[in-house]
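re: the backbone from monday

yeah here it is again, tokenized this time
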């Protein structure tokens, strides 16, 4: 998040982030260009079958729509499995270290939730308040869900604001640097909490008039995390998550205040 904040102060219009075990699958210029293309306008008309000009597609004016505000690039080599999946696939002999996703890039349906992996992402400056990664690691009961939960917040608020998100190219080569047995210990508390976290965020009340910008939406989520920690009865069986949400609501509000103090609205 500090890197995001620093890039904003350098007046970056688009911010691209890579994990330290990820490398562009092709030339660096193509990698950045593909992220920019994913965030650029697209044709309104598309074929009903990928890559096939099926009957009914206009020949001249395909129209245009706004591009995505955030793009998640996919991975070649190692897919982004959690520790239980990695260990299960390894035992069954199905773990494929030559994972090769389909080419292309697609807009994701706003009514769906999907796992947002921050190993290879790009986003537009204007949604930076929503790129909040909940605290993980040292001093936190949870690990390895910071990007997933960032994605839940981003997707909930983007749906409300009518903004699009995309997945696909550019691809990266993912050379796994972590141990799945170590990851299993790290992920265990978060796997349980993940069943509840998205429902808390989904329940955030967002008003068309009051929450009309990424920042005001982020503030609403921060307030709702604090409220849920006190009042959401569904959290009663997970006091660890309840305490975490109470602290996270305060931390996220501090993140939002940084934007407020910098003149964002």
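seq for it, each position gets an aa:
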């Amino acid at each position: 998040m500090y890197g995001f904040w620093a890039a904003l102060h350098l007046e970056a219009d688009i911010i691209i982030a890579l994990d330290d075990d990820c490398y562009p699958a092709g030339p660096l210029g193509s990698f950045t260009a593909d992220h920019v293309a994913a965030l650029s306008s697209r044709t309104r008309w598309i074929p009903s079958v990928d890559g096939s000009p099926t009957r009914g597609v206009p020949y001249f004016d395909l129209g245009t729509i706004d591009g995505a505000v955030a793009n998640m690039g996919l991975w070649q080599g190692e897919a982004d499995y959690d520790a239980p999946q990695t260990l299960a696939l390894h035992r069954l002999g199905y773990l494929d270290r030559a994972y090769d996703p389909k080419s292309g890039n697609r807009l994701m349906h706003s009514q769906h939730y999907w796992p947002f992996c921050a190993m290879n992402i790009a986003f537009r400056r204007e949604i930076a308040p929503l790129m909040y990664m909940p605290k993980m690691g040292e001093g936190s009961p949870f690990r390895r869900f910071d990007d997933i939960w960032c994605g839940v917040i981003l997707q909930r608020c983007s749906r409300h604001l009518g903004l699009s998100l995309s997945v696909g190219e550019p691809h990266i080569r993912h050379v796994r640097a972590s141990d799945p047995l170590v990851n299993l210990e790290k992920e265990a508390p978060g796997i349980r909490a993940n069943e509840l976290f998205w429902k808390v965020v989904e329940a955030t009340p967002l008003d068309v008039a009051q929450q009309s910008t990424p920042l005001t939406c982020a503030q609403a989520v921060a307030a709702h995390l604090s409220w849920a920690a006190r009042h959401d009865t569904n959290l009663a069986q997970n006091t660890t998550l309840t305490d975490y949400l109470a602290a996270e609501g305060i931390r996220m509000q501090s993140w939002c205040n940084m934007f407020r103090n910098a003149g964002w609205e």
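The beta strands are 14-18, 22-24, 42-43, 64-65, 70-77, 105-107, 120-124, 165-174. The two ends are 19 Å apart (CA to CA).
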